[in-house]
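Lab notebook, bench 4. Still working through the backlog of constructs that have no structural model yet. Next entry is a single chain of 336 residues. Request: give me the structure tokens for it.
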Amino acid sequence: MTHLLPASPEYKEICLLLDSADDSYWRPAVEYICRKYDLSDSNASRIHEGGNLLYQIDDNLILKIVPPNWRYQGESEIVANDLLKGKLSVTIPELIHYGELDNWLYLIMRRLDGISLAQVWAKLGIANKRSIIEHLGQLMKEIHQLAVDKNGMHGNAKQIAPNWKDYYQQLKNDCVPRHQRKNVAPDLVEQIDSYFKASKTDDDSILDDLAEEAPPIFIHMDLHPWNLMVKEIDGEYKVTGILDFGDAVIGKSRLLELATPLLFMCQGNAELCRLLIESYGLLEQCPAEELQGRLMAVSLLRPACDFNFVLAQVPETAPRTSWQAIARQLFPFSDS
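Model written out:
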């Protein structure tokens, strides 16, 4: 080991370092990695985004350094590169090099062209939003139709392809404690278990919405404006790239994928919500009211979800005193 980075940091320690340590702390590790691959670090600059250490090495390359505490995020990036590279109608960051330094996983990736959709989403007109939403629904379907073959993948494919029933049980066991830790209103937290029962989403079928014989699919899990790259083409912004596969998982839930763009892009707009589901092709397979309840349950189960942050994305059009009322605002498919 080089001892350039803390090999076994506690969770709180690493969060504090990533938040507050200045460039001089990280620079030796960045220089070491760049030298290993004959890259110049003279213009390397830190990118203060996301939960990992990011550096732009030059105009074309990004260095991501992932702490051992959530190494699976780096593994997911490696697996995603193997599975998706050259197979989509949009680009993903090409993985150039990866390795390990003091138990930290690092990846050197080619920078995507364009700008983050987050930079322009709020000011786009509804027509441009419609075209992006429709394209995204088709793009998710495109990803989910890819054959998932774990054999021959680099990285730890098993890490992002858990036993699906065990995965559901993990999420279910942590659901109430997680929302308590995230300071969701206590009266809403108390209603979570009863909501699952009332909406008939209290078994593992809620995270298994594919046919029994259907193979698992690749789920990005985090398709929102910060992870979508766009370019202005003929006066309209179009999605041209997808990045950040750190939360990806291989499993059997389309709703786990759909929930994020519904919340962070459709933002309670009934027209956009319906358009996303219709362009993906799911609304015709599931009654609107049932789909609303299932998406609410999946959103509550979703790993690492900060529900107060989620609620802030969608305008409050009525009191949010129950999960049923919240579901009607977040996922307005049903006319009830």
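Notes after review: The longest strand covers residues 95-101. The mean pLDDT is 90. Flag for follow-up if needed.
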